[in-house]
Amino acid sequence: MDFKDLVQKRRSIRKFTDEPVSEDQLRTILRAGLMAPTGHGQRGWQFVVVDNRQVLTAISQCREAGSEFVKGAAVAIAVCYDTSVSDVWIEDASIAAVTMQYQATDLGLGSCWCQVRARSNAENVSASATIKQLLGLADNIEVECVLGIGHPAIERKLQDEEKLNWDCVKK
Fold first, then answer.
1. pTM, entire model
2. DSSP for 14-35?
3. Is the dihedral of CA 127, 133, 139, 141 positive or negative?
4. CA-based nearest residue to 151, from 75, 96, 98
5. How far, in Å, CA of 112 to CA of 56, rounded?
6. Contact, 101 vs 111, CB < 8 A?
7. Per the count of CB atoms within 10 A, which of 24, 30, 78, 169 is most buried?
8. How confident is the model over 21-73, as pLDDT tens digits?
9. Is 136 exposed, middle or buried (0-12, 13-18, 19+ CB in 10 A)?
């Protein structure tokens, strides 16, 4: 699949089968994240892989809404960053996360981004603080997002090129 097709095919998948993600697939996804570009080549990210059902369920409750799909994923990857390394950690972590999502799509897997930074649960507890506690992360580590990854249980249509807003592109 060429990149143009990959970009059109990547969609948010929130329903997964029970089929596990193989170690090779997971390693390939993590490799893609580790190779993503970063500001000043700092690479201050940390990727925490979760496949424990209890922890996936706990992560799925970190926000008031929009995180439920994580409990059905085969694995979740918490995309974290050592904020003492770089002031552009949000951008670096985001680029790595999207790179991993494209790699998952290329492997025939589905993924969905669960925003953690600047989100909270119904009791107004920070989603990032919840994830940091669940995963035992140090104070200087921040969580940008959690990627739920697995074998898609649904088929999504390709991105509709007819809906592209070309008016925002200036020459």
1. 0.95
2. --B-SPPPPHHHHHHHHHHHHT
3. negative
4. 75
5. 14
6. yes
7. 78
8. 999 999 999 999 999 999 988 999 999 999 999 999 999 999 999 999 999 99
9. exposed
